[in-house]
Structures are given as C-alpha cells and as structure tokens.
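Fresh eyes needed here. I'd like your take on this protein's tokenised backbone:
***
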Amino acid sequence: MKAKTTRAASLFLASARHTLAKQNLPNIVKCLQQLSEEEIWWRPNPASNSAGNLALHLCGNVRQWIISGLGGAEDRRERDREFAERGPIPRRALVTQLRRTVRDAGRVLARLSDDSLSREYKIQGYRVTWLDAAFRVAEHFGYHTGQIVYITKLKRAQDLKFTRLPAIKKVGTR
C-alpha cells in the first residue's frame, strides 16, 4: 500500500524553506556583518564554538541531511573539521557558503513530492523519513542561529532588534 501524506507535509516543507532562508539565514548574516573578522572566530572558552565554527557546521549539516541525504548529492562532509577550524575564513566567504547552502537545500525541499515525504533514508546513521530530516534540519538551524545571535550580543552588548512583536490593542480602544 502506498503511503499517503497530507497537504500539511507540503505546507511544512514550505515553512521550513521560509524559516531557513527568510528568518534564520538573514539573522546569521546580520550577526556576521556586525562582528569583526577576529570576533567571528572568538570562542568564549575551549568547550564552546565560535560563530564561524557554527556557520561551517550549519553548512555541513544542511548539505549532509538535505542536499546529500534527500537530494542525492555526494556526501563529503568532514564534521570534525567544522569545529576544528580556527579561521580566518573571511566573513564574505562564510556568508557566500551559507547562502549557497540554504539556496541549494531550498531547491531540494521544493521538489519533494508528498509521496516522497514518507520514504525512509539513512542519514548520519539515523533512519528517518524525508519529513523527519527536514524537521531536524530546520530545528537544528534555528538552535545554532540562536547561539550565533547570543555570541553577537555578547560582543556588541546591545539588543540586535531581531524580534518585533505586533502591537497589542488595549481593551476598549480602537
């Protein structure tokens, strides 16, 4: 029997593409633009990663899970190198690599059919459906985006103004 998925799966993939490309990526880019080349590679302590390491790690993760795992490209990831790098890889090169990775992943996610979403694959030793993989990557990307934002706040000591809540009308006002 053929597995069936709902329109919700397609909506989720569209949301995952939007979250990666229109929310998290722009925040990372804004952070990298605010940090000096030296600050991009600063680590608060030996057990922590720099913003540069996190950017490389996100590229590796997205390429492995989405572009290779779901899209069929060759998986050449060397995960340990993402964290071992001490720079200086220039800001421009990091931003270009991140943008290219998110763009390529978006293309893979855009071409997934509802029928393909329930197929199982083995990615990084995990047995997952395509939908599972897309969810993991979106969540993982957001997690590390938050770390890069936090590093930037530590170095700049200011609110980056990324969160804008809608105005709330008081009861009895128009």
